[in-house]
Design goal:
The protein has 9 helices and 14 strands. The chain has 320 residues and is of the alpha/beta class. The chain starts with a strand and ends with a helix.
């Protein structure tokens, strides 16, 4: 029997998630909720769920919903997740899970107290190609990792009313895109950075439209994590070691990575046949739920808390 998901929010990412549920062998869409119930009914009609709600709380209270997927705008994540945990519902929340470190530590403590599964939807960590790249990096196949670079940048025309550029909805490149290259580096190395420095370019609304983060890790590596919502850039990430490197193509949704020796020659290649990467994330969180676990070893709460802490620091450094 498949695990029943309820979706809070019915925008584009929710539709992609619902489509991935159709491809998954472990989860299924049961319910959706939106402030405009017609949007929830539309999503259910498209993807085969059973219940549509015009209230987030009504969905959370539905005893048939086992895992709640939160796809709301960033500034609503914490309160929605808190409601879920208070009602004993497992949570899969879109990134960034939290806006501030205070939110992160408070929810982590509540989830631990209630014994409820909570996981940030950092789906990149669940991808087989990411796992292979991490294996190569940590096995010594490229020697000691010294440098990592990753960038997630896209060009969205400036619109002061759009969530990406609106400070009221926690807009900006750091939260919307910067979480991905930051967590890529932390995930590959298996540790949070010991030092974070950043510079930003601001949009007219005061949010950051581009951010460059420099990260230092106690293990000896440095990383460059770049994000922008105003310019498109190549998404290939590189992991450089003392005896070779790993190239991760389109790291955000990667299906391919290469192991490269000191001469620059490709000596191994990994390819994932699954075109919809969300399926891996769904299978992972349903496995955690079914086995009674309350935290993901791939996406630990400590890493979600760490990025929230870094975001606080970067906003202070850059006057955001």
């Amino acid at each position: 029997m498949k695990t029943k998901f309820g979706i809070l929010g019915c925008g584009g990412i929710a539709k992609r998630f619902a489509r991935a549920l159709q491809l998954s062998g472990s989860g299924e869409l049961y319910a959706a909720a939106a402030r405009d119930e017609a949007r929830a009914q539309d999503l259910i009609g498209q993807f085969g769920g059973q219940k549509a709600y015009g209230s987030y709380l009504d969905l959370i209270r539905d005893e048939n919903v086992e895992i709640v997927y939160i796809s709301l705008v960033h500034n609503l994540h914490y309160e929605a997740a808190k409601l879920c945990v208070e009602h004993g519902k497992a949570v899969l929340c879109e990134k960034p899970f939290f806006i501030t470190e205070h939110e992160a530590t408070a929810l982590a403590a509540l989830a631990k107290e209630k014994g409820v599964l909570v996981m940030e939807a950092m789906w990149t960590r669940c991808l087989p190609a990411f796992k292979k790249a991490k294996e190569w990096a940590q096995s010594g196949a490229i020697g000691q990792v010294r440098l990592i670079d990753a960038a997630f940048c896209f060009n969205f025309p400036f619109d002061p009313e759009h969530r990406l550029y609106n400070p009221e909805t926690a807009g900006g490149a750091l939260l919307d895109a910067g979480v991905y290259p930051y967590q890529f580096a932390a995930g590959i190395l298996g540790e949070a950075p010991a030092e974070v420095r950043a510079v930003v370019q601001k949009a007219p609304t005061g949010v950051d439209d581009s951010v460059v983060m420099a990260l230092r890790f106690e293990g000896g590596a440095l990383a460059s994590a770049i994000a922008s919502v105003s310019v498109k850039a190549d998404g290939t990430a590189h992991i450089y070691g003392t005896k070779g490197s790993v190239k991760v193509y389109d790291f955000l949704r990667t299906r391919e990575c290469e192991l490269i020796d000191e001469k620059g020659e490709v000596i191994d290649r990994f390819t994932d046949d699954q075109e919809e990467g969300f399926v891996h994330e769904i299978d992972h969180v349903t496995d955690l739920y079914r086995t009674g676990q309350t935290e993901s070893p791939l996406i630990p709460m400590s890493h979600s808390i760490d990025f929230a802490r870094a975001a606080d620091l970067i906003r202070a450094q850059c006057g955001l």
